[in-house]
């Protein structure tokens, strides 16, 4: 059997670009003078970092949708949970510098008359613990959810709808003040991360580089997974679940692993997103956010990983541009994007070249997998 | 709450005061030139001489108490005013309530400033041309305000208007001022309207219950009357029976408390079930169109909520046109909006099916994304045309108001919406089971190629079915515009709930949607007292997630080969 290489040509180009960005963007920001046209201004750094964390999230969504056939409309929940775990660490770092000056309790708890820290906030002042929780909390939720859902063979649209119900329920829960997560204001007003000021340009550069590295690493992990023998079974599950089951594979276990890993990657993306944006609140749980993530993947090209990251960058850059120039037109553009991509670009932007050349030659394109 | 009631009473008394003044005016004119007996000697007598109020020194004495500017005196004076036969009493109480009762610190004379600003003598109601300079208003604190309310209540017990008398009886029932008892007895004796008489009797019972002076038999019958009334207020009253009351009264009150508590518990559950049915009907309306597009056709229409929203906006536009060109038709506005909304949203649905969804059959996840995109565009389109704020949709007269069943109140709009949702359900069931369109729809959804072979134009049936589902969503929007905010986000609030109902009830089964909607509605409202609104909703979502694990195809699952494809 011919093994697919982990780093193919597209993936190689992608990794080179991401790593080059991790080096060149900070270099341009620090070394070039502000008048130079190639200079990357300070305000762009967290923006680009935000895009990169979205790209990682899109890669996570593509792992389950593109390779496992599970359309999750609830990945925003995993993303937000990772973000909340990081946000709790950042809240504890504020210490006595809050408005009320309480050394232990965050401002909103003082405001809501908390007498002591709730038990689930304990330990979040220690970064390694918070980092562990960034992985563990979304991972655990996904594991439990997937355990039940995959075992009882909930598939297709039904699964999508209950993932949506999951994130909707979490959103309602986090909007409550007595949940202990700051209610609808969420967590904000962060000061330090690991002892460095979160506003400082240098810290932001480091966060940007960390996002780029996390994206590259996340891509490599997913790519290694889908090119392995396990990945082949995963694709088989996507294309013919019952047949794979009849061949003797424990389909639910294959799905569960991909699902849980994807949730953890989404959690990491959320944890990188929060310090760069400076706030996390329950609106990240909104079902609409989760659906938007799916369109990133669809725009870039489902089942390619690179395409997912690309789609996240394209759509979010478009969103930034539109909301700045034509705020009213953004929803029209996004809505039209959903329709156009599903109707005319089933393989996304990445598959556009093959689609056009296939049209021109009036011949069905050769499936990539069957090439020797 | 109290303030609102007070204001309502005061504004109700306003015209009365005016009437009293008008009646007094000719009298004042007649009295011109007659030797006058000043009520208080220090009042400067001027050209507009006040009419003589003979022999009413009692009333003057009461008024005198207002001028001491002590709350205790003011309250005492009010209590006496309540039983005073003087026609000026109501005007004085009214003025005090509005802060328009003035007194002169030096002469101890009391005046009323009319809302227009003129100064009148409090005892006679006659205008005073040059009042003393340093008039200060009689102040009120909470105790005085309570006394004002009680006095107003007592004074309006004898009002000519039956509604006013009943309100007054209710006020006395609340204040339980023993001083009103004589007035109450007088009112009770001449009362002719049965409802008002009952209200007066209850007010009397409320006073007698706790008055040690009343004979035991009277107090026992008072307890019985209150137990018959059986609401929260009666319960509160019965709990106040003092320890030194006769044993028979105490035990009767105890028995009464227990029976009222049992009744109230029952009515509380009944009220919650009613709210649940009401929520269920809303869910049914929102989900029933989806039961066609998703349940029968298998199309995941995420723009379904926007069809509901378009229906609500159609109602708004119809009402707008009616308001500007034919106001007399306003009570018919909903009846006009129904077909308009059905046609409009049905048309939008047909266009959507022909241009987008038709290319995506058999690819449910892509359909989901494309229709979500359509929903974003529809929302933004409505926002661009009508603006992002809530639009005002009026209710026809037959939809407003409420009536009482036992201890629960039922509003007409909720009642009509329940009836309407059931009508829509039956109509849809008939269309699917009894018409040729329904037959074609079922044939196409069960076996498309066979249906095509039999000569059914499947493409047209698809478009019509989708149009039907969308049109019904539009009709739902007309009904929901009566109880929800009509804004571009209206549909988003319903889309998740609708899917939950359809999935819970079982896809492809209208009866499942009916049962699912009412089950979820009632369960939600019965959970609310224990868990709160948000936690109740979360609990329900978690329940549905778990339920789908157990029965992945819902409560009433379709069986057979058609399901597997």
Explain briefly what this protein structure is.
By secondary structure, chain A is an all-alpha fold.
Describe the protein.
The complex is a heterodimer of chains A (372) and B (565). Chain A is mainly alpha-helical and 372 residues long. Helices cover 67% and strands 2% of the residues of chain A. Chain A is globular and about 65 Å long. Chain B has three domains: 2-148, no CATH class; 157-245, no CATH class; 267-564, ABC transporter involved in vitamin B12 uptake, BtuC (Orthogonal Bundle), CATH 1.10.3470. In chain B, strands 3-2-1-4 form a four-stranded antiparallel beta sheet. Chain B has a two-stranded antiparallel ribbon with strand order 5-6. In chain B, helix 13 (333-355) packs antiparallel against helix 18 (458-480).
Low-confidence stretches of chain B: 1-55, 561-565
What top-tier CATH class of the largest domain in chain B fits best? Mainly Alpha
Unreliable stretches covering 5 or more consecutive residues of chain A: none
Q: Mean pLDDT across all residues of chain B, rounded? A: 80
Which strand-content bin applies to the residues of chain A?
A: under 5%
The assigned CATH architecture of the largest domain in chain B is Orthogonal Bundle
Largest sheet of chain A: 2 strands, antiparallel
Structural class of chain B: mainly alpha
How many extended strands of chain A? Answer: 4
**Of all protein chain pairs, which has the greatest interface, and how many residues does each chain bring to it?**
A-B, 43 and 41 residues
* Amino- and carboxy-terminal Cα gap of chain B: 61 Å
Give the CA-CA distance, first to last residue of chain A.
10 Å
Average predicted confidence as pLDDT of chain A: 90
Number of domains of chain B: 3
Based on CA atoms alone, the radius of gyration of chain A comes out at 21 Å
Q: Mind summarizing the main beta sheet of chain B?
A: 4 strands, antiparallel
Instruction: Classify the helix fraction of chain A into a percent range.
Output: 55-70%
């Amino acid at each position: 059997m011919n093994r697919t290489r982990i780093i193919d040509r597209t993936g190689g180009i992608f990794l080179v670009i991401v790593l080059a960005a991790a080096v060149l963007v900070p270099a341009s920001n620090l070394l070039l003078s502000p008048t130079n046209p190639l200079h990357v201004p300070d305000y762009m750094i967290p923006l680009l970092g935000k895009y990169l964390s979205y790209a990682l999230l899109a890669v996570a969504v593509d792992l389950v949708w593109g390779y496992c056939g599970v359309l999750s409309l609830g990945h925003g929940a995993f993303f937000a949970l990772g973000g909340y775990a990081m946000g709790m660490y950042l809240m504890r770092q504020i210490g006595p510098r809050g408005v009320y000056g309480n050394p232990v309790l965050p401002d909103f708890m003082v405001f809501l008359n908390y007498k002591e820290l709730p038990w689930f906030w304990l330990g979040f002042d220690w970064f390694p613990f918070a980092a562990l929780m960034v992985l563990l909390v979304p991972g655990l939720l996904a594991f439990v959810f997937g355990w039940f859902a995959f075992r009882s063979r909930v598939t297709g649209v039904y699964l999508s709808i209950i993932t949506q119900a999951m994130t909707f329920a979490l959103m309602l829960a986090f909007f409550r003040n007595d949940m202990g997560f700051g209610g609808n204001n969420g967590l904000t007003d962060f000061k330090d991360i690991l002892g460095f000021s979160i506003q400082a340009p240098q810290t932001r550069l480091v966060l940007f580089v960390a996002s780029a590295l996390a994206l590259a690493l996340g891509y490599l992990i997913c790519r290694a997974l889908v090119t392995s023998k396990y990945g082949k079974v995963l694709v088989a599950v996507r294309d013919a679940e019952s047949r794979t089951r009849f061949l003797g594979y424990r389909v639910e276990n294959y799905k569960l692993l991909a699902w849980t890993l994807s949730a953890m990657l989404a959690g990491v993306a959320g944890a990188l997103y929060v310090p760069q944006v400076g706030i996390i609140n329950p609106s990240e749980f909104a079902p609409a956010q989760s659906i938007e993530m799916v369109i990133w993947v669809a725009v870039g090209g489902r089942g390619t990983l690179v395409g997912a990251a690309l789609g996240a960058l394209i759509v979010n850059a478009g969103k930034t541009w539109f909301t700045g120039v034509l705020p009213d037109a953004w929803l029209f553009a996004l809505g039209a994007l959903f329709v156009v991509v599903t109707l005319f670009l089933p393989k996304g932007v990445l598959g556009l070249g093959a689609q056009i050349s296939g049209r021109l030659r009036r011949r069905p394109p050769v499936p990539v997998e069957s090439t020797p | 709450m109290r303030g609102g009631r007070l204001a309502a009473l005061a504004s109700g008394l306003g015209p009365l005061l005016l009437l009293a003044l008008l009646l007094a005016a000719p009298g004042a004119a007649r009295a011109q030139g007659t030797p006058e007996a000043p009520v208080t000697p220090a009042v400067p007598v001027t050209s507009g001489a006040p009419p003589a109020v003979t022999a009413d020194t009692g009333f003057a004495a009461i008024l005198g108490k207002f001028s001491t500017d002590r709350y205790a005196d003011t309250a005492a004076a009010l209590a006496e005013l309540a039983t005073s036969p003087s026609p000026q009493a109501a005007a004085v109480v009214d003025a005090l309530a509005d802060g328009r009762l003035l007194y002169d610190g030096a002469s101890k004379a009391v005046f009323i400033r009319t809302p227009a600003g003129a100064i009148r003598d409090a005892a006679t109601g006659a205008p005073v041309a040059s009042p003393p300079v340093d008039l200060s208003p009689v102040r009120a604190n909470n105790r005085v305000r309570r006394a004002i309310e009680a006095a107003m209540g007592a004074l309006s017990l004898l009002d000519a208007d039956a509604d006013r008398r009943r309100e007054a009886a209710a006020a006395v029932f609340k204040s339980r001022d023993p001083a009103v008892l004589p007035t109450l007895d007088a009112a009770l004796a001449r009362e002719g309207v049965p409802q008002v008489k009952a209200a007066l009797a209850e007010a009397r019972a409320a006073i007698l219950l706790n008055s040690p002076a009343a004979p035991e038999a009277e107090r026992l019958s008072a307890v019985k009357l209150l137990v018959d009334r059986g609401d929260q207020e009666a319960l509160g009253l019965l709990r106040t029976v003092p320890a030194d009351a006769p044993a028979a009264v105490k035990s009767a009150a105890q028995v009464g408390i227990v029976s009222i508590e049992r009744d109230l518990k029952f009515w509380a559950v009944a009220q919650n079930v009613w709210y649940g049915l009401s929520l269920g009907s809303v869910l049914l309306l929102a989900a029933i169109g989806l039961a066609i597009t998703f349940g029968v056709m298998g199309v995941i229409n995420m723009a379904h909520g926007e069809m509901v929203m378009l229906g609500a906006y159609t109602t708004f536009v119809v009402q707008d046109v009616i308001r500007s060109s034919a106001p007399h038709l306003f009570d018919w506005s909903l009846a006009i909006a129904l077909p308009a909304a059905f046609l409009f949203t049905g048309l939008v649905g047909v266009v959507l099916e022909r241009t987008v969804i038709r290319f995506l059959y058999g690819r449910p996840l892509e359909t989901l994304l494309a229709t979500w995109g359509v929903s974003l565009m529809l929302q933004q389109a409505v926002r661009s045309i009508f603006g992002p704020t809530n639009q005002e949709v009026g209710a026809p007269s037959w939809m407003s108001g409420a009536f009482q069943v036992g201890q629960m109140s039922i509003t007409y709009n909720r009642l009509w919406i329940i009836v309407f949702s059931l009508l829509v359900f039956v109509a849809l069931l008939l269309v699917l089971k009894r018409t040729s369109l329904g037959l074609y729809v079922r044939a196409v959804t069960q076996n498309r190629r066979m249906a095509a072979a039999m000569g059914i134009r499947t493409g047209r049936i698809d478009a019509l079915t989708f149009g039907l589902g969308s049109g019904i969503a539009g009709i739902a929007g007309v009904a929901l515009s009566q109880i929800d905010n009509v804004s571009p986000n209206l549909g988003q609030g319903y889309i998740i709930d609708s899917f939950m109902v359809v999935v819970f009830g079982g896809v492809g089964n209208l009866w499942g949607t009916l049962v699912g909607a009412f089950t979820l509605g009632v369960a939600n409202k019965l959970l609310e007292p224990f868990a709160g609104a948000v936690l109740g909703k979360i609990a329900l979502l978690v329940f549905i997630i778990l339920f789908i694990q157990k029965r992945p195809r819902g409560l009433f699952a379709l069986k057979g080969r058609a399901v597997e494809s």
